[in-house]
Design brief:
The complex is a heterodimer. By secondary structure, chain A is of the alpha+beta class. Chain A has one domain (3-59). Chain A has 2 helices and 4 strands; from the N terminus they run αββββα.
């Protein structure tokens, strides 16, 4: 399946002071609302950096699912 | 850093005798500047500005037109040192503004063309959905010289030193979910309680790190027409209650097309070895605007349309106008650098 269709929007979270990342690292929340990355490709994880939109823009015939463990580190989408 | 100071305007009792006004660049801005210097009636003001405006000119790319309008909007923000603060509500200046706003709004509507407001939220998402970095951000990220990058910072200063201020005019004109969400977004733009994190202050710090001035006045006389247009669009939408839907649609499109370009521009700042304050400004916006995009589209525009569905067309118009004027600006700046090369 191409990454185009299913790169999900981030989740908006309010009213928390700390977000614990998948690796157990605690990230302090310094905004009234934060956007948590849901496509697993943000370079600012756990925060969204808009990468999900860059992926959707790519032509489906040239995109592989970069979230597979064997896909390696994602190249820059721009 | 405590050494960055944005100088306050002089208090009224310390006013200097000669007002400090932008340099006119044609008949419209000359007529407006004259109105700022000398009292006139509303009828005189309207007649003079109407006579100065040539209908065959495109208001969106005519620097004289945009500078005239910018001066009139400035009365609602910081005003001009040495001018009477009461000019903000002078019938003459309001009449002059109305003469320019009519062709300005008409030109914006012509620029964006017919729109489909049937599902406005989906339409805003569609309009802003491309993750393809725009050519201006790509150029700044990869190719711009240090001089071109500095010029970009100087050109954009007329907006970023006032970042988010036009949208604050909208707060008392919306309610409930839209108001709560807009206040939340603005609170973040204004530093979330920390004055040193005000986005306008982060920009001033970036300018100061390159020994550039930190006051808007220093940049107006050299700002491209379309740079003034980007600021004037926000003022037009922000200052007219009837256009509150357009103001919020504009905000949504602005936020939703910011993260990826800001990442690229930050990379450009690193590539050129600029002081950290420059990249810091843009890196803050990669993260902040990824939040603001969701809040602006879903909660601000969604909340507004829940209570005022009749504003659907305005929301889409505002979003489309933001993107179309951005395109005009990109064309103008890239051409400016091509000419100079």
């Amino acid at each position: 399946m191409s990454a185009r269709a299913d790169a999900p929007e981030p989740t908006i979270v309010r009213g928390v002071s700390v977000v614990v990342g998948a690796d157990g690292t605690a990230h302090r929340v310094e905004r009234p609302a934060v956007a948590l990355c849901a496509c697993a490709l943000s370079r600012l994880a756990p925060w969204c950096d808009g990468t999900h939109k860059a992926l959707r823009n790519e032509r489906p015939d040239t995109v592989t699912d970069r979230r597979r463990p064997d896909a390696g580190a994602p190249p820059a989408p721009w | 850093m405590s050494d960055i100071v944005i100088r306050p305007r002089p208090a009224p009792d310390h006013q200097i005798a000669v007002p400090s006004l932008p340099r006119p660049c044609g008949p419209v801005s000359q007529a407006v500047v004259t109105l700022l210097r000398e009292p006139a009636t509303a009828t005189q003001a309207e007649r003079r500005v109407r006579a100065a405006f040539h209908p065959h000119l495109d208001p969106l790319t005519d620097r004289d037109f945009q500078l005239g309008l910018w001066c009139l909007y400035e009365l609602h923000l910081d005003g001009f040192p040495g001018t009477d603060p009461a000019l903000e509500w002078s019938p003459a200046l309001l009449a002059a503004r109305a003469v320019l706003e009519e062709p300005f709004e008409a030109a914006l509507r012509r620029l964006v063309g017919p729109l489909s407001p049937d599902d406005p939220i989906e339409e805003v998402r569609r309009l802003t959905g491309s993750g393809r970095p725009p050519r201006l951000a790509r150029f700044l990220g990869r190719d711009a010289t240090a001089d071109q990058f500095r010029d970009y910072l100087a050109q954009r200063a007329v907006y970023h030193l006032r970042e988010s201020d036009p949208q604050s005019f909208v707060l008392p004109r919306v309610h409930g979910r839209a108001k709560a969400a807009l206040a939340e977004l603005q609170y973040d733009e204004y530093g979330a309680g920390r004055p040193d994190r005000l986005h306008a202050t982060l920009y001033a710090r970036a300018l100061a790190s390159l020994d550039l001035p930190t006051g808007v006045a220093a940049y107006v006389d050299t700002a491209e027409a379309t740079i003034l247009t980007t600021v004037n669009v926000m003022a037009l939408f922000g200052l007219h209650r009837r256009l509150r839907g357009a103001a919020l649609g504009h905000l949504a499109a602005f936020e939703a097309t910011s993260s990826i370009p800001c990442r690229l521009i930050a990379l450009g700042a690193h590539r050129l070895g600029f002081p950290a304050a420059v990249a810091t400004y843009y890196e803050e916006h990669v993260e902040a605007d990824a939040v603001h995009e969701q809040v602006a589209i879903h909660d601000i525009c969604g909340g507004l349309l829940e209570s005022s569905p009749e504003l659907a067309g305005d929301v889409v118009f505002g979003a489309a106008a933001c993107l179309a004027v951005d395109e005009l600006t990109a064309t103008a700046l890239l051409a400016r650098w091509e000419r100079a090369a």
